[in-house]
Automatic annotation (TrEMBL):
This is KaiC associated regulatory domain protein. InterPro entries: CHP03879_regulat_dom_put, RNA_pol_sigma_r3/r4-like. NCBIfam families: near_KaiC_dom.
Amino acid sequence: MEVIAKPKGGMNVDKMAEKVFWEAIKMLGGLKRLVEYRNLTWLPSLAEAAYVLVLKNEAFKTYREIAEYLGITEQTVKNIATADEEAVKKYLEGELEERPKEHIAGGIAKLAYKKLKEEKRLDEQEVEMYHDEIEALGIDWAVHVLARIRGTHFPLNKDELKEKLEGIVVKGKKIEELLDKIEYPVKSPAELLHKIKVAAEEG
């Protein structure tokens, strides 16, 4: 079972990535604002981007190591890591008419990561969650999944995930049934969210 080395400060990568993820949502105005953008589909990409930034900047992993850990391509890792966050910010604020070629979720995650670093909050233990908004939007399953796997070392197999996630309902479907449909092992929390989302949408 792979264990990612803990970066400076003693906080593990999972915790830091989670922090970047929620800060990004907060910077966007909360989950309700994401509905306005019609980009709730960003959530798995945003989680993925949060991991890329933490693995690169805090755990000092190479593009290849990050790609292997997250189960994505090296090019995707590079696109996230090199995204022009200021261009993405201007696009989100309506200053750019055309969508930039940057990795949007990567740019958002970079803004959140930079803010946390500047304010020296990346190492804080608390993770602020917007429970009311999340439940109202029907995507509380992602929060429950993240909470249940907090501190878990990846990759995980089906039996391990069923034990941890038993009882969670995703878009009206039992997560146990969705876990039967995905491929294993699951290499990261970001990959897990993505696979569950795809399985739920496929019906």
